[in-house]
Amino acid sequence: MFDFLEGYDVLGAFWTTVQLTVLSGVGSLVWGILLAGMRVSPVPLMRGFGTAYVNIVRNIPLTIIILFTSLGLADIFGVTMGAEDFKIQGFRLAVLGLIAYTAAFVCEAIRSGINTVPLGQAEAARAIGLSFSQTLRLIVLPQAFRAVIGPLANVLIALTKNTTVAAAIGVAEAATLMKSMIENEAQTLAIGTVFALGFVVLTLPTGLLLGWLGKRLAVKR
Amino acid sequence: MKLRKVTAASAVVLALAVSVTACGGDKKDDASGGKKIKIGIKFDQPGLGLKQPDGSFSGFDVDVATYVAKQLGYQPNQIEWVETKSADRENALQRGDVKFIAATYSITDERKQKVDFAGPYLLAHQDLLVKKGSNITKGTDLNSKKLCSVTGSTSAQNVQKTIAPKANLRPLSGYSECVAGLQSGAVDALTTDDSILAGFAAQDKYKGQFQLVGLKLSNENYGIGVKKGDSTTVDKINKALEKMVADKSWDKAVKDNFGPARYKNEPAPKIGDIVK
C-alpha cells in the first residue's frame, strides 16, 4: 500500500522542515522580542520603526518575501549568506525570510502579553529606580511571556506549516519532496495524505505541550 | 416539532442537491453530443500552452488539441480550455473535469496505471538552454556550473541522479523565474524538455539571446491523457493524430510554434511507438 514511498527520503525531508522551523523559530523569537521592546519604548523613533516594520512585513505574503530573498537579495544585491552552493544558500535565505516574517507576529503576541501586565508593576519598578530596559527585562517581560505561551504556540505552528513556502526557492524540505513524488508516481491523494499526516505529527505535540505549559505558567490575576 | 422541522429542511436540501447533481450529469452528457468540450492544457508555457493577455490561447499543445477536437466534431469556439497543472492532471481526468489533456504530458508507466494515453504526438528530449556563445557543450560540463530547473520536475531529478550530480542546481517554482535568472547571469543554464525551452527562446523578448545545446538527455513521449478505460476516445484521438500528421498540419504547427528558436524537432512519432 505504501510502496510509493520506496526510494524517497521522506524522513530526511521532514528533518529539513524541522531544522527550518527550529532555526527560524529561535531567530524570530529574538527579533520579535526586540521589536516588541521597540514598540513599547519611550523613544518615538524606535516606536515608529517597530510599528512600521510590523505593519509592513506582516501584510506582505510570505511567498513574496521568500521569493524576494532569492530573486532579489541573492541575484540582484548579491546577498548569498556566505554560501556558493544553491542548496545551502536557499536554506539560509529561507530562514532569513521566515524570521523577518514571523518576527512581526511574535512581536504582536508579546506586545499583547505586555498589555496584560498591570501598569502598577512598571510604575513600581520605575519608583525603585530601575531603568526602562531593566523594567522590561526584569519585571514586565517575564510576566508578559507567561501570559502569551498559547498565542506563541500558534505562531510556532503557523511557522512550521509556512516552511513549505521555502519550496518556492528549492529548499529540500517536505513540500519539495512531495512535488517530486507527485511528478513521478502520479498518486496525488496518497502522497498528499502522507505529507499532511507528517505535518500533523509535527505540530500536534507542539500544540499540546505548549498549551499545557501555558496553562501551568499563566499568572493568575 | 423542532426535530421534524430539521428533518424536513434536510430533506429539502438533500432533494435539491440530488436534482442539482443530476442536472450537472445531464450537461456532461450533452457535451459529448456536440455542445462544448473541455480540454486540459498548460496556461504558462510559451510555445506549448500559453494564455495570452487578450484571453486567447496559443502553442503547439493548443494547436494539436484544436485539431483533435475538430476531428471529434467540435469547432474551435466549442472548446473550453481548462488549466491543468502538472500535479492536477490525473485527478482532473479521473473526476471528468476535462475530456482529454494535452499539456506536455509525458507517457510513463506510473502514469499509465492512472490514466490512458493516446499518441504520442511529439518526442521531446531533456536539453539545456544557455546564453548564445556559452561554452557548455555536454552534460558533464554542468558539474561546475549553476543550473536552474523547476522544483520536483523530472528534469531536475535527472540532473541530480544521473547527468551531473555535482551541478549547483537551483530549483525554482517556475521556468519563467529560471529564464529571468539566465538572462541576468544568475545561472549558467536552464534545463527541461527541449520543446519547452524552444518555446521560451522563441518568445519575442528573448529572441536571439539564447540557444539550445541539443543534448537529448532523455526521451519524453508527449501523449494525450484520457480517463482510464475510455478506449473509444483514445482510438478517436489516435485517428485524429494520424490524420494531422498525414495532411501536414502537424509540421505546420511545429514550425509556427518553435520556428524562431531553430528547434530541431524529431519527426512525428508513430502512434503507440514509445521511445524509452
TrEMBL record, chain A:
Entry-linked PANTHER family: AMINO-ACID ABC TRANSPORTER PERMEASE PROTEIN YHDX-RELATED, MEMBRANE COMPONENT OF AMINO ACID ABC TRANSPORTER
Coiled-coil segments: none
GO terms, molecular function: transmembrane transporter activity
Transmembrane segments: 12-35, 56-79, 91-110, 188-213
Key word Cytoplasm present: no
One GO cellular component, as annotated: ATP-binding cassette (ABC) transporter complex
Record protein name field: Amino acid ABC transporter permease
UniProt keyword list: Amino-acid transport, Cell membrane, Membrane, Transmembrane, Transmembrane helix, Transport
Localization per Swiss-Prot or TrEMBL: Cell membrane
A Pfam family reported for this protein in Swiss-Prot or TrEMBL: BPD_transp_1
TrEMBL record, chain B:
Keyword annotations of the record: Signal, Transport
Key word ATP-binding present: no
Family annotation (PROSITE patterns): PROKAR_LIPOPROTEIN (PS51257), SBP_BACTERIAL_3 (PS01039)
CDD domains for the chain: PBP2_GluB
Family matches, as InterPro entries: Bact_solute-bind_prot3, SBP_3_CS, Solute-binding_3/MltF_N
Domain Solute-binding protein family 3/N-terminal: 36-261
Xref: SMART domains: PBPb
Cellular component terms per the entry's GO annotation: extracellular region; outer membrane-bounded periplasmic space
Signal peptide annotation: 1-24
Pfam families according to UniProt: SBP_bac_3 (PF00497)
GO terms of biological process kind: amino acid transport
PANTHER family recorded: ABC TRANSPORTER GLUTAMINE-BINDING PROTEIN GLNH, AMINO ACID ABC TRANSPORTER PERMEASE
Entry similarity comment: Belongs to the bacterial solute-binding protein 3 family.
Protein name: Glutamate ABC transporter substrate-binding protein
Originating organism: Streptomyces seoulensis
